[in-house]
Predict the structure.
Amino acid sequence: MTARGTVFRETMLGRVRLAGDDSDRPVRLDLLARADSLMPTRRTTRARLTGRIRIAGRADDPEAEGELEISPLARRRIRYRLGFRLEGRRLLLDGWKSLSLKRPVSSMTVLPYTLYEDGERVGEGVLRFPLATGLLPFLAGFRFPRAAEAERSLAPRWDGTPGRTEVWYTTLTDPATGSGVWLHHEVVAPRDGGPAYAHGWVAVFPPGGPAEHARFGPTPWTGDPRGFSAGGISAAPGRLRGSAGPFAWALTEEPQGPPLHTFPRWSWRHPWLPASHMLPAARARYRGTVRHGTRELRLRDAPGASARIYGHGNARRWAWLHADLGGGDVLEVVAAVSMRRGLDRLPPLVFLRLYRNGRGWPRRAERSAVGWAGIGRFRADIGLPRWRVEGRAGLRRVRVTVTLPPDGTLALDYTDPDGSAAVCRNSGRADAEVSLERWRGRWRPEAAWRLTGTAHAEVGDR
Amino acid sequence: MNTAPRALTGLVAAVLADDGTAPWTEAVPRRVTALLDVMPAPARAAVRGAAAAIDAYAVARTGRRLTALGARERERVLASLAARRTLLPLLDAVKMPLLLAAGTERMLHRGPAPSASAPEDPPLDCTPARDWPTRSTADAVVVGSGAGGATAARTLAAAGLRVVVLEEGEHHSTASFGRRAPLDRFADLYRDGGATIAVGNPPLVLPVGRAVGGTTVVNSGTCYRTPDHVVARWLNRHGFAAAEGFGTRLDEVERALRVAPQPLDVLGGNGLLALAGARELGWAAAPLRRNAPGCRGSCQCVVGCPAGAKQSVQLSVLPDACAAGARIVTGAWVRRILTDRDGPGGPRAAGVLVRRPDGSELEILSPLVVVAAGTLHTPPLLRRSGLGGHPRLGRNLSVHPALSVAGRFGHPVTGRRNVLQSVGVEQLRADGILIEATAAPPGMSSFVLPGVGRELRRELEETERLATLGAMIADRPSGRVLGRARPLPRYDLAPRDAGRLLRAQRAMGRLLFAAGAEEVLTGVPHAPRARTPAELETLLATVNARHLHVSAFHPTGTAAAGADPERSPADPEGRLRGVGGVLIADGSVLPSCPEVNPQLSIMAAALAIAGRYVSRGR
């Protein structure tokens, strides 16, 4: 079953008496609450709060953040905890509605609260939900997106079956220095039934210099319900940390878009294909530090993405591209020749997803790979240092050229679950050219992007 | 001050034989009215109803109301009523508030003006509930600031928890005690104006305090250690594990309260006579151990010590708790303990819902709620919180049934200085009878002077010559506390305990005669006085327990701790069964009657329960 989240907006008006003030001040609170599940029934649900708080003459913080505890039946309480800034001070608003069957309306709409600064009380007040003007927008504003999918898709897929491999990998570009960063976390369950092991690597691709990297593992895989965790290295929702050789990293990840399935969505849920690839969030922003030796990258809103692979092993030949096209647009391409007998004689299957203006193209992921029974499928020319993909779907056609700079490419060996070896060449600062055309009597250019050193790409073979 | 209803004014004039010669009688009706106003509605209605009925009887007999009659005619009306033996207990019940008011007025007119010099109290962090925020959080909420609550709060605060103590009453300073008349304080410091009634056979008056400091503000300061055999019974028969090492806990409590034997210098005539009588009989007796160093003998323990000598917990334990960060909210009545029912491991306490005096509500979230609302109020609180499911909750109520006997001496007994409860006569302790010499302020004794009209007036004028003894008995737990919104105590005296009471009455009479009393006042309406020991024996042969005027003090045991899950609402560590995060830390947690004045026992139990909670790592 697909878990859905809940998103709603709430506006409350009221008053506050700050310590040292002789009179109350008007307050307005505009909140956006996101819960990872549908609205609670009998149990307690927590939601993240973001929003804006305005205290007349004293504070206007549009970046208030906090937590909402929604428990109308089990605890009869809806508790708001919201941190915000007031004249440079960090305050916490802590209050709750106490639901009462005797007073259903007032108990659901009145929020008494107290303000704290470092645990000391610095004010109190009451906020009210304006029923007359606020109820309709409040009810109409409820959304139930697949909010939990990003976090759920980071949870390990491997179920103990021998002969599987599972990957969490993250690529990003530091906008300040132009360096690329690549974190690869992998679990391999050998086909012979041997114990699963975790390994991976970290690499930094500084502009104008050779890539540096360090491997970690193999260490026994113990499993972590939230993501990858082995040998002190973890990739969990919103957080990446670890150290390997001269490298040490601690990053926070803030998803910026919806999940993006490069392969058909069903192939992630039902692993019938040799492998499946998806992005828990089409785009993400990273903050934190990556130290390598004596150098340190301090990342602030670095663009990138995390991706997930689950399957039987590496392909015979493959290429991959993640291109953040700016303005919220993303291009994700996988072109691969399968290891399976029969399929290995086919030309590369191309899975291309262009996420543009909030919509995916081609509409179905299968379209670019198989076309109409092979007719009209996208084509790939996999090579080094340059590979290409082109194809047409509907009234649009796309041409993608990716170049892996020789000095910014890192070749690494892999061992598949069946023991065979593969080599992958990765670049965290690849170039990409993308041109999109649309048929209007003839092919006319619709959009074109040129990424210099900000694309993330790889090419692998045997 | 309120104006008194006419029927009540007439009744006061008749009962006190008011002939207009003494100025103090004039203000008594108004004072009675004020006292009735703070009593529970049934008690108020009963007294007013009785006054109206007696007024109607006067109209039927003379054609005029009591107020319109002359002193002599009023006397005749009352005498004809008092001649009916069955009406005597009712008349006694009506006399109690009248005597309370009369005693106060008489003292105000005769005694010295209240002393204004009082020492400064140690600081407390008290906040009225109206100034406490509607939403707040704490690490521990303690419901009740009496002996148990104060001790638990001090222990938890010393362990670094943010503690909030909730008290329904107000904070009264020692200076405020010095400024106000005893009866004014009486109305403020006691629940229901001191008229909490346990219905049953016989009905009992069960006074409990309501203030910061709880009943320790209004108790007599007598500090008995829990007897060893009681501690052994709690440990071995009931499995009350918190009683392990109880001696050490009692030592700590005694240090905190500065307990010491009462020196003889301010003991007063009442105590000295008890000692003399015991010496004559060869009985074991000694000045009581009390928590009142530097006691000046003000004899007002039961309405708050005006000298600040008695180390009630608001002067001894709560200041330490506040110094460790605890905060006290006054005027805060806990409506409900909030519970989170969806957590792992079953329901857990989440905080409390509190009603302010103006009717508004506030909430405090806290993972630990220590219930120390008192033996009578803890069961209703748990019931209205949905935590009263244990079948034994509210049962197992012990109350120390007590009665008083007075002896008239040929010389004044009570002088300027008296310790209210001064001497313990321990001769009959093995039989569950503890006699204590008790001289309360006028009218506040549980002893009811005999007679009405001129006879009563004569007794009133001669109260200085009366020595009073009280006896309390270790009872069977034959009571229970019903009710949700408010407690409804019910108590039926066990036959064994009725026998003990009669025996105690005899013993007290003997003691008074041995001390040289000319006459012993039994407190029994139809057999009020005896002039010789032999006459007393003859009189008491006609008396059974239903004739006695029984009071009760020291309620315990209504949420008893113990190892048997079916018999004990609280587990051996004092944790309420069936919910996480609720500790019981007042008299209700004691598994059985402590057989002595229970303040030290309650405090040591609270200390053990809170201490073990802290040392378990919460």
